[in-house]
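Ticket #4471: structure output looks truncated?

Reporter: J.K.
Steps to reproduce: submitted the chain below (132 residues) through the standard prediction queue, then opened the result file.
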Amino acid sequence: MANEIAAYVQAQVKARVRRAVTPAAFAATAGVFVLFAAAGLFAALFFWLEPEHGPVAASLICTVVAIVLGLIAAAPLLIGRRAPPPPQQGAALPQFVSLMARTAPGLGPRQVIVAAALIGAALVLSARGGKK
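Returned output as attached by the reporter:
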């Protein structure tokens, strides 16, 4: 029974970690390339403006452009976020609860308390994912 509980918890943790790590890795890679592209564009803008306006004015213009682009990029975060995707409902939770119900009569008092706590934690985790 303990092995099945551990396997259930590990499956849930792996699925949640995979859902969080994959987009983060792609975002970090894209961020590095965007950073290099932005640095090149700002260098080009500076060297284009510097002969006409001087180095101080050209750097201030580049700074203002960077601030405006940063505010535009942060606008979706400031305005609102989209709803997270619904959690994947598997058949593992009902099987887990029925397994606990079948084995409960043969358990001692401490094991029953631990089993009840695990069922409660599993129900809380599954209910948290369903709220909108």
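Triage note (M.O.): checked the attachment and the full token line is present. DSSP finds four helices and no strands in the chain.
Status: closed, working as intended.
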